[in-house]
Design a protein that fits this description.
Layout (H helix, E strand, L loop, with lengths): L2 H8 L3 H10 L6 E2 L5 E2 L4 H13 L4 H13 L4 H48 L2
Antiparallel strand pairs: 1-2
Helix pairs in contact: 4-5
Length: about 130
């Protein structure tokens, strides 16, 4: 698959794909006879996983660490697991903080709704 198709399927820009390849997050693509990058379709599974890590706030340095461990093979499974577990803990902490903040927002919004209803009721009551 050419870089444009990978960009379309993965949601990454061609610039990001080239950047990820340059820093080692993506394996260096094979080149076709014309010198264009030619990616194996299985790269989509990896780009989707990278997207999940990015969405959850994993720093690129940790993504790179994970990618390097992945390249080394199955013997790095425990290290990769530990890295993902630490990241999962961070994500859970962030979710807890966001949930608490969401509760505060809901309470504040509800107080405005209550005030509006009372004001509206007072205006319509003779």
């Amino acid at each position: 698959m050419k870089i444009g198709e990978l960009a379309k399927c993965s949601g990454l820009s061609t610039y990001t794909i080239r950047y990820y390849e340059r820093i080692g997050l993506l394996p260096v693509a094979e080149r076709d006879a014309g010198g264009q990058r030619d990616y194996d379709p299985s790269i989509l599974i990896w780009t989707e996983f990278l997207g999940r890590l990015k969405t959850t706030g994993m720093p690129i340095r940790d993504m790179l660490r994970y990618a390097r461990l992945r390249e080394q093979g199955a013997q790095t499974g425990l290290e990769r697991r530990a890295l993902l577990e630490a990241h999962r803990d961070m994500v859970r902490d962030k979710l807890d903080t966001l949930q608490a903040s969401l509760l505060v927002l809901d309470i504040k919004i509800d107080s405005y709704v209550d005030t509006e209803q009372r004001t509206h009721h007072d205006e319509t009551t003779p």
